[in-house]
Design a protein that fits this description.
InterPro entries: RNA_pol_sigma-70-like (IPR039425), RNA_pol_sigma-70_dom (IPR014284), RNA_pol_sigma70_r2 (IPR007627), RNA_pol_sigma70_r4_t2 (IPR013249), RNA_pol_sigma_r2 (IPR013325), RNA_pol_sigma_r3/r4-like (IPR013324), WH-like_DNA-bd_sf (IPR036388)
Organism: Aquipseudomonas alcaligenes (Pseudomonas alcaligenes)
Number of strands: 0
Largest sheet: none
Family: Belongs to the sigma-70 factor family. ECF subfamily.
Keywords: DNA-binding, Sigma factor, Transcription, Transcription regulation
GO molecular function, one term: sigma factor activity
Oligomer: single chain
Length: 185
Amino acid sequence: MSTDTDEQLLQRIAGGDQRALRQFYERFHGVVYQFSLRTLHNGADAAEVLNEVMLEVWRRAATFAGQSQVRTWLLSITRYKSIDLLRRKRPSELLDEASLEDEAAGEACPASLAIELGQQGAQVRQCLDRLKDGHRQVVYLTFFEELSYPQIAEIMAIPHGTVKTRMLHAKQQLLQCLRRLLGGA
């Protein structure tokens, strides 16, 4: 296992070090795949995005300016590659992000309640899957990747306040969904 920092790995990749790219892949493939899967809902598509992201890392490692964490930079690339794949696969179905925000969505559950209701994991997953993409991404990045709102705002290329608003709405929808599924109102 490499003891190089993420930044050092990127510097080595920028210098053409294929071993560094393999180490980088081993370190981040799960994060990239899971984040893409949350957007695309298809394992084959998420694997395709993973490959595209790692190719982009190989090509653009030298452009990393260190203004954010490597993980934030990487998830930003992943988000754009996932959206690009959606556009290529379903151009007539894809709406711009503003109209996606207005689109009616199902409801889902807050993470703290999900932990308390651990045995109802299937219901929690069902509720999470009903969230709009933007809301689901914010929940995923907050609770599963443990990123801050400013990091999420950078990854998603949206204002910090929008991240807060999406999280608020996501928590409300999650709570309503779980209450309905668990028979509590």
